[in-house]
Design goal:
The protein has 481 residues and is of the alpha/beta class. It starts with a helix and ends with a helix. Helix 9 crosses helix 10 and helix 14 runs parallel beside helix 15. It folds into three domains: 148 residues, N6 adenine-specific DNA methyltransferase, N-terminal domain (Ferritin, Up-down Bundle); 283 residues, Rossmann fold (3-Layer(aba) Sandwich); 30 residues. It contains 17 helices and eleven strands. It is globular and about 115 Å long.
Length: 481
């Protein structure tokens, strides 16, 4: 039902000069969806309070509630006499609504509240719509969406995930916000998170790891206390950029997390020396961004291992953020395993943590085509041996042929006992060069491929054979007289 509404929303946004790509469609529809979600949430809370005989104090003032200004109704029908449109609507949203919502960030003391989250979202995003008439049409479509039931939220979360995945093909670095969900689900499945564990992604993007962790853990909840713990005390993230921040927040909400614990902050700006044991976590799930010299010089000074590669800084941060016995599944470029610039970081990882497994992924798992691996490690004891699994597929991955969970079925099965197979093997760290600790993926079980010779080489050999045959024929004819 909702897929047609989503399509009409995108078709309407396409008409606005302020929206030029899939990224803009997701960004602008996200803050609008968030406002409709808030209105539905407040109505549900008010109804529950009334049943309990309590008085409910709304978060949003009446003037700024969706049902008051976005699509006001009278007797269940749209009240045209109170419905703003055109410049009046655009002026209200930009001049009154956004400033009101942004003020929540300064009026709230704790970042754990939904009020603070509202202020944070609207402090980091702009209304890009330039036409109040397009805005009116979008609001009318969004008003048809419902957030009250779990079935509604499940359908909308699935549709939202599809929109996020399309961002990977939209240019403007859209792909950095999306990690294939079959890969995320497999990483979570083998690490087996438990109720009560603190789970962290310091580069959460669209919050795919946190959403899938929630989906995995909600099935393990046995009591109301378990569900409250999962909602409020287990899932934490940080995101530097405003666009993925709001997308991640909205994604978690649609997956069932009422007030996502995601902070709009640069994780790498935090000095590692200031990380306290109380801040450390049980499980880290992440796909940090990569790129050389993308951070300022003073931020690089926060790290003991000096590097210009963003992903390496994140990996050191993750090692520091794990509590003893904590474990992690981190996606990183495969060059980390051998790059000379990463030698010091490899030594830290192997000495401070047990790198118990490495998953080697094919070239086109990510839309950018970057070759990656997944590092699985546990903090607190040095690495003695590492199990490698090389994902070898009989097809080429791409936009129309993405990674599936079936592709990773053998990996998940063999991971339990770290079994050797045609695609997996174990490396003893003592056998590595102690100066480089080069962990390059070399499958000892791979069949040697026949080297294809160049056409020139083949032609030369044919000419040589022809010459030899001609000489042999001449000798035979001479012998026959």
């Amino acid at each position: 039902m909702y897929d047609q509404i989503y399509k009409r929303i995108d078709d309407t946004l396409w008409k606005d000069a302020g929206c030029g790509s899939e990224l803009d469609y997701v960004e602008q529809s996200s803050w609008i969806l968030f406002l409709k979600y808030l209105d539905d949430l407040e109505q549900s809370r008010a109804a529950a309070a009334e049943l309990d005989g309590r008085t409910y104090k709304p978060i949003i003032e009446r003037k700024f509630r969706w049902s008051t200004w976005a699509v006001p109704k009278k007797n269940g029908e749209k009240d045209l006499s109170k419905t703003l449109t055109g410049d009046d609507l655009l002026g209200f949203v930009r001049g009154e609504l956004f400033p009101y919502l942004r003020a929540f960030k300064t009026s709230e003391a704790s970042p754990d509240t939904l009020q603070y989250k509202i202020g944070e979202i609207f402090s980091g995003i702009q209304c890009k719509l330039t036409s109040g008439y397009v805005m009116r049409d979008v609001f009318d479509e969004v008003d048809n969406l419902r957030f009250q039931s779990s079935e509604d939220q499940h359908e909308m979360s699935s549709l939202y995930e599809i929109r996020i995945s399309r961002m990977g093909n939209a240019g403007r670095n859209g792909g950095e916000y999306y990690t294939p969900r079959p890969l995320i689900r497999s990483i979570i499945a083998v690490l087996e998170p438990k109720i009560g564990e603190r789970i962290y992604d310091g580069a959460c993007g669209s919050a795919g790891f946190l959403c899938e962790a929630f989906a995995y853990l909600i099935k393990l909840c046995r009591t109301a206390k378990d569900r409250e713990t999962l909602q409020k005390k287990m899932l934490f993230g940080k995101e530097k950029k405003a666009l993925p921040f709001i997308i991640g927040t909205m994604n978690m909400i649609l997956h069932g997390v009422e007030a996502p614990n995601i902070l709009l902050a640069n994780t790498l700006a935090e000095n590692l020396a200031n990380i306290q044991p109380s801040q450390q976590v049980d499980l880290i799930l992440a796909n940090p961004p990569f790129g050389s010299n993308s951070e300022r010089g003073e931020i690089k000074e926060n790290f003991t291992i000096k590097t210009g590669e963003t992903a390496y800084m994140f990996l050191e941060h993750f090692i520091r953020m794990l509590k003893p016995g904590g474990r992690a599944g981190v996606v990183i470029k495969n060059t980390f395993l051998s790059n000379g610039d990463a030698t010091a970081l490899r030594k830290m990882l192997l000495s401070d943590c047990n790198l118990f497994a490495v998953l080697d992924l094919p070239q086109k798992v990510f839309t950018a085509g970057v070759k990656t691996v997944v590092l699985f490690f546990e903090k607190g004891r040095p690495t003695k041996k590492t199990w490698f699994y090389q994902l070898n597929l009989d097809r080429t991955l791409g936009k129309t042929n993405p990674l599936t969970e079936d592709d990773l079925a053998e990996f998940r099965t063999l991971f339990k006992k770290k079994c050797d197979s045609a695609n997996s093997w174990t490396v003893n760290i003592a056998d590595l060069d102690p100066d480089t600790l080069d962990l390059t993926v070399r499958n000892p079980n791979a069949k040697e491929e026949k080297v294809m010779r160049a056409p020139r080489e083949i032609a030369a050999e044919m000419a040589k054979l022809d010459k030899s045959n001609a000489a042999l024929l001449a000798d035979i004819l001479k012998a026959l007289g």
